[in-house]
Amino acid sequence: MEKREQQCNDYIRSTVGRDKIVLMLVNGGVNSAVCAALFHKALLQGGDSSRVQAIYIDNGFLRKDE
Question: What are the residue boundaries of the GMPS ATP-PPase domain, all occurrences included (predicted)?
Fold first, then answer.
């Protein structure tokens, strides 16, 4: 599993490059939250995670009272 995580990090870094910012829309579900966490971890530079801008979108499809 550790190798898979490293492969994902390497792919994200090579795709995004060194100086770009990622705009990411998340809906609060597990899938988008995990993707946002992976992007933050992969693109972390010197303790600064500002290269990933995750924006929460309420799409109206969450479970009742969430």
Answer: 1-66
- The three-state secondary structure class of 24 is strand
Does 27 count as an annotated binding residue? yes
Contact 8, 42 (CB under 8 A): yes
Phi/psi at 23 (nearest 5 deg)?
-100, 120
28 among annotated binding-site residues: yes
Residues 6+ apart with CB under 8 A from 28: 56, 58, 62, 66
Tell me whether residue 30 is annotated as binding.
yes
33 assigned binding-site residue = yes
Domain coordinates of the chain in residue numbers? 2-56
Is 9 annotated as belonging to a binding site?
no
Low-confidence ranges of the chain (pLDDT < 50): none
